[in-house]
Amino acid sequence: MGISTEELKREFTKFLKKKNMRVTKSRLNLIDLIADYNKHFEIEELVNWISTKSDKKVSRSTVYRTLKLLEEFGAIKEVIKKNNKTIYEFVVGRSHHDHLVCTECGKIIEFVNEDIESLQNEICKRYNFKPTHHRLEIFGLCSECNRSR
Amino acid sequence: MGISTEELKREFTKFLKKKNMRVTKSRLNLIDLIADYNKHFEIEELVNWISTKSDKKVSRSTVYRTLKLLEEFGAIKEVIKKNNKTIYEFVVGRSHHDHLVCTECGKIIEFVNEDIESLQNEICKRYNFKPTHHRLEIFGLCSECNRSR
DNA sequence: ATGAGTGCAAAGTATTTGCACGTAC
DNA sequence: GTACGTGCAAATACTTTGCACTCAT
To answer: Which of A8, A82, A146, B38 could form a disulfide with A141 if both were Cys (CB 3.0 to 4.6 A apart)?
Structure first.
């Protein structure tokens, strides 16, 4: 299923070269760091975690700048917007899915539904709209939080 | 279809009383202001627009505070998150719909699709998840912007 | 060697909050 | 009269940017 981090770095290197951008340590390190981190992450959380690591430090500005590149490259995706925070997800080698977000405990549940995907495509065709990406967030209470109410 | 602004204010008054909150001029004025404004709005945009009006002024802080109440009440909804900005929509009396968002010109196209809604409900049942609201944003190029590429 | 990338601190945005004053009840 | 709500300005949170230095090419 998923490709290895090393393969991913090689692909990202190609991507950077194609754009005439430099293949720097920070850029490649960030891939390792994100791969080591949780699947879903908030930027500040990631920045703080990185600052505790002794090797592979990447500064806040470079994290912000490189995340944009990684999003364009397709390795990560903005999946949830909650309380003015962005939650990204490492998406490489994973098929598209959407999210249930518990507003009580913050739990994120992923789900795949091909029917929703194809309905979206139909709608885009109807409006002659050329989709680049989408985000479906269903907010509510997960089973545990609902039970303890 | 839609209910009148006056009816809405009466309902909001009930809502406030039920919460033991005061029915103030600012709170009711904001309803008039939002009803007069575009269906979709960004907060800062609304605040600036309000500041140009001679009657019915509402301060930035009160706008922010009251929008939360109106969202809880169900008159408005956060429908789009783009570039760290929140786009709200006046939803009273309108049936649920989702959005196509042009990343080039900012145009917002609304669409209704019952099938997507019911698929979402199925998914929630499967995960024993109790949904409160959801947001489906499809980003891409509208027909005009796509043509001029 | 040279210009793109980095890290830092400062500046920008969007949003929240503390507090003195006003107002609904 | 007594909180609660408002408006202001200050604070906070997230993100971007200017600039001097570093490093990939």
So the answer is: A146
